[in-house]
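Batch manifest, entry 17 of 40.
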Amino acid sequence: MNKTDKAAAIESLKERFEQNEYFYIADASTLTVEQVNKLRGICYERGVSMQVVKNTIARKALEQLPAENNYAPLFDALKGPSALLFAEVGNAPAKAIKEFRAEKGERPILKAAYIASSIYSGDDQLDKLAKLKSRDEVLADILTLLQSPMQNLLGGLKGQGAKLAGALKTLEEREA
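Output type: structure tokens
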């Protein structure tokens, strides 16, 4: 790879990092071509994009991004074979890895994950990451919590209104 190709690869990867607030670094080495294709298929179904990268190119791309994004702790994970998994939902790559492992064994191994400026290091974090709620799930929970008191209030008013209507009807019948 010549200097121009490296610069283009770094720029392309830099754009991917800027566009994705969720990405994982995994070790998918020792997987056969068939297994990698199966993993890519599972990732595709879950909206995850998998890209095998050179660690130096990934590191240089991350170094060019603003320091406040806190990418520096990820540099330790960029050793050995690395694959990047980009997603729009924070827990999607973890679920894809877990699904693949259920069928095929212990790989890929999670090296690190970047979830909206939080960093999770090590394969032992995989279960925690898979259980994370997506932004849509959190919003749905909040809406449910906000709707509950209003539904109780409306239900109570509706019940009291029916009692009042029944009492008025009884009084009207007595007068007649």
